[in-house]
Amino acid sequence: MKIINKILMFFLYGIFLFLFLGFLAYSTDLHIGNYSSRHTINHFLKTTENTLKEFVFNINDTPYVRNISISKDDTERVLNGTYVALITFDNTEFDYLNSITLNNIKYTDFFELPHDKYLVIMIKLGVFFTEDETSKTINLTSYEVNGKVYNTSLSTIAFREINYDIVDSKKESVVGIQVKVSNTFGSRAISWGSGIIFKKVELSSGFGGLNKIYEYYILTNAHVVDGGNEYIIHYQNQTNTYPKYPKDKVELIGTYTVNTDIAILKLTTRQNNIKALNDAQFETKVPVEIREGQVVFAIGSPVNEDGGYDFNNTKEGIILDVHTNVYIKDDKDLCINGCESFQTSAMQGNGSSGGGIFNALGDLIGLHFAANLQNGTASEIPMSIVLIAIDDILSKEMIKQGKIGLYVPSYTYFSFLN
What we know:
Layout: H1 3-29, H2 35-61, E1 64-72, E2 82-90, E3 97-102, E4 105-107, E5 111-113, E6 119-127, E7 135-145, E8 148-159, H3 164-171, E9 174-183, E10 186-205, E11 211-220, H4 222-225, E12 230-235, E13 241-242, E14 249-256, E15 262-269, H5 281-284, E16 295-300, E17 313-326, E18 339-344, E19 356-359, E20 364-372, E21 377-382, H6 383-400
Antiparallel strand pairs: 1-2, 2-6, 3-4, 3-7, 5-6, 7-8, 9-10, 9-12, 10-11, 11-15, 12-13, 14-15, 16-17, 16-19, 17-18, 18-21, 19-20, 20-21
């Protein structure tokens, strides 16, 4: 008998004893001494006891599902993108389980996983997500045990997990940024951060346009570039730096700090093999949806314990909260009224500011800018604001260069900040 039955029966017998003593006292006071009266009382108590025993048994021995979860199928490594459902049952055994219905699909082929207390069932779901899905709702509608069908309304949300080929491809567009102060006496480094190359422009010059120059636009944080006048871009590894060639230059295009923390740098070079992030959001101006619990990964170059940099480090996590106002301590210019952000568990540490936070499909969903070192949470600027900042900064650059009309901003997002 299970421990819960023992506990319930202990209290049950205590109640019976109390009732019996009460009836005994009652019968004594009324001088009911004949066998028939006592037999009637005993029969009543016994019938009640058996009824309650059967009731307790039915409650605690009815098969039911404790939990359901979806995870990546690590048993079939050759099948990239396949998933399994893990379902925990109580009050039944593997041999008694006939079928399980998930999202109106009846499964009769499943496996038992070792567990010291409950029955844990694994169902192979195969290729579970469609090409553009990052999450899916799973409904467990019924299960059959010993030929009897039990209906339920248990559900869970499954989130697509990380594909490391996607992670590696996104690293090609993330950079490290060293900020310096230069004057006639030399230069000194004042800060280190990360950035994301989001735009590439090809320029031609010379006879027949044979000379090619490329402009790379880099997202980062305003607080990363604050106070500097010289910027060194580290691409792919820490030693590969720009400016590299005589006419190369890196300049600050502008900042956007309306309740946020964004800046854009521009690297001009003749180097063609630097990759800008391939992300449709920069063209559509429509940010992808995010939701709490979603699996994400961050790419940045945080400072390590030895004082160096963990270049293009990757940290996995989940979205903890999709809407949080962040106030940066000891800063008089940024986030005075709170900066709109979402929170993740993919915190990397100092130096990762300006790095990217991506969903499982590799879509950029935010720009990292702050963290709480005590609870290990990271604050990310959502793409809705990043897109506003890009429009604002690049529009001002076009006006400054006398190129009005070459860049058309997307004003549809400005209502977000009102």
